[in-house]
Amino acid sequence: MSTSTAANSPVFSVDGLWKVFGPKSEQIPADPELAALDAAELRTRTGCTAAVRDVSFDVRKGEVFVVMGLSGSGKSTLVRCLTRLIEPTAGSIAIDGEDVRAMDRSRLRELRRHRAAMVFQHFGLLPHRTVLDNVAYGLEIQGIGKAERRRRAAEVVTKVGLEGMEQRRPGQLSGGQRQRVGLARALAVDPQVLLFDEPFSALDPLIRRDMQEEVVRLHHEEGRTMVFITHDLNEALKLGDRIALMRDGRIVQLGTPEEIVGSPADDYVREFVRDVPRADVMTVRTAMRAGDCGGAEHPGALAADAVVAEAIKVVSRSGRPACVVEDGRCLGVVDQARLLDVVAGAELADIGKEAV
Ligand SMILES: Nc1ncnc2c1ncn2[C@@H]1O[C@H](COP(=O)(O)OP(=O)(O)OP(=O)(O)O)[C@@H](O)[C@H]1O
């Protein structure tokens, strides 16, 4: 999981967004009775599928925003609507305050090429071109001269760890390396936002972990805004500053990994996160009893965003409560009982209640 250093200004603002597939689809969002039908009833009555239903959210500058949900929940449709690769049926979308639905074709092309680049699972590399020329492809489309695009492509190739492979063809690369080429190609155009559609789901688990770490590293180095689709909860928890959890076209909960795991919005979310190792997600900021410890020594001195697993090690090693310290100030204290409460599955609102 990365820590957002971002200001809270939105890159994307989405409000009341709908995407309905099927005949007379535009009638569905406008009709409260039809809009309230569940998926099966809607299909029977109208022949339509509402892939995205009345969804509103902001993607903040510099964050990794994860869209998570089971297959068919509407993730790809939602993210494709952001740049109108799929035309929304109703609602509004803005990027930096500019109305995406009002953009003409050339403005849209500019949006997709420069401002919000997409990295797909099937990366569509050009088989007869070298790695370097594949990475430079987006720059070529932009009309940038050969020398300059090769220079820029070489820089990103190094950034994603493919140095030395510049002259290979895609067929001479592993799946993970090909995905790095896809990532480098998107990065080469230096977009404001990177949109990832399940980019790693075809990779084997170890390579997948490498790629996840790569994304975290790139995000830390560059602070680029990222929207990341996944159906994998662990991937979502690892990468997301915030996660939008989708079900049947709706966002059922939007929050930090800690909020989703610690305060599930309903039984569906609760069931979804049931097996998450809570000690690896919940932070000591949540587990602590707030208030200065009163001493000068601050035993343990944990950072507020340290996870509970780390705190358990510190507390059990020293045999005494540990302080949570930020900017030299003691924010609170964690003891064994509070840490165990978190691990045992107490929800945020209940942690430490009996101890108070
Ligand atoms: N072109 C289309 N025409 C009709 N229905 C569609 C179309 N595209 C998607 N759907 C339907 O919309 C719903 C959401 O699909 P979507 O691909 O957005 O889900 P997803 O969460 O990305 O799934 P996955 O994880 O399997 O990719 C599904 O019920 C799907 O069958």
Write a structural description:
The protein has about 350 residues and is α/β, with parallel strands linked by helices. The chain has 2 domains: about 60-85 and about 95-270, P-loop containing nucleotide triphosphate hydrolases (Rossmann fold); about 280-350, Roll (CBS-domain). The protein is about 40% helix and about 20% strand. It contains 15 helices and 13 strands. The chain has helices at about 25-30, 30-35, 40-45, 75-80, 105-115, 130-140, 145-160, 175-190, 205-220, 235-240, 255-260, 265-270, 285, 310-320, 335-345; strands at about 10-20, 50-60, 65-70, 90-95, 100, 115-120, 195, 225-230, 240-245, 250-255, 290, 320-325, 330-335. Strands 6-7-8-3-9-10 form a 6-stranded mixed sheet, with helices on both faces. It has a 4-stranded antiparallel sheet with strand order 2-1-4-5. Strand 12 (about 320-325) and strand 13 form a beta hairpin. Helix 6 (about 130-140) packs across helix 7 (about 145-160) and helix 14 (about 310-320) runs antiparallel to helix 15 (about 335-345). The protein is globular, with a radius of gyration of 23 Å. It binds adenosine-5'-triphosphate. Keywords: ATP-binding, Nucleotide-binding, Transport.
